[in-house]
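During the reporting period the student researcher (J.K.) took over the structure-prediction task from the postdoctoral fellow and processed the backlog of single-chain submissions. One of the processed entries is reproduced below for the supervisory committee.
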Amino acid sequence: MSLNLQTHTEHFTNPLYLESGRILEPYDITYETYGTLNEDKSNVIVICHALTGSHHCAGTYEDDTKAGWWDGLIGSGKAIDTERYFVICSNVIGSCFGSTGPISPKHSHDEPYRYKFPVITIKDMVKAQRILFDRLNIHRVYAVIGGSMGGMQALSFAIHYPNFAQKIITMAATYATQPWAIAFNKVSQEAILKDPEFKQGYYESEHIKKHGLSGMAIGRMAGHISFLSPESMQNKFGRDYKLTDGLYELFGKFQVESYLEYNSYNFAKWFDPLSFLYITKAINIFDVTRGFDSLEEAMKKVQCEFHLISFKNDLLFRSYEMKEMNEILDKIGNTNHSYIDIESDYGHDAFLVEIDKFEDYVKDILDGKREI
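J.K. obtained the following structure tokens:
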């Protein structure tokens, strides 16, 4: 059966009032849909993407071979079954895949915003999505699902829009970004800022797409280390050396080094460095207790069926950070939630890579078979 993949961009002229007190107007949101919307619009599932993700979470484009980032989970007959559900995934504001971000032209100018773009938060990203859904005349959805920064968005939906979703699943996330994760982001940010080719934010986008940015690639290497774990690196690479490199060549490489180079230098050609700075800022300042007296008070807002999924050996957002949310929900008497810590040595990226370890769990939640 067809996935019925469709890509759209909506233009908004009303101001988006941001958490910082600043305004973004006008702005665009690019989004993708899969499956078919039923008559009473009761089969909508919202997917939220992570830092370097996009609206393209499933299927392949005609002129491309790379499938969407959660293709193993979303599609005909998969856990998020597009024969049953109408799936929407939008590119967050601040990103570089069609939604308005720092490299977008500023209104009434042809020049990009660059540093004139306002600092945005996860809450702002979610607010913009709610405005998009209102435009699409979708005011309540069956489920919201996301991992990592997508999990932060899912959690924000649960707290700030408690009646919007019937079910929410947040994976590999946290309620407030902790110093360990902020530190990794700092390495990436500094590596970008100190690269002369970054030109203090006044680089040409086409030049970056062609040549990349060495500083961003180096920063991304630190990111990749935080996405994996010592065990997954051991299993994936061991101490294997590149067969074509001599052991006593100064620049001969281990397989793990080649992996970091290949992925990071490629990444620097397709992700915009200013967007990276703005989105990592949003992740760093994420804290659902902002505006509340405590995490307990914030979690009291959760009204929907709420599911937490963490991964053992996630070094970026530790399991105990999600376990703490579960314990608080227990403490305040919330009887409509569940928590599972998935057995995994892979690390943070398990939510993208080890789909077989949680797809049945997600399917059971959506089918109403998961005991609360």
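The committee noted the following: The chain has a mean pLDDT of 96.
J.K. will present the remaining backlog at the next meeting.
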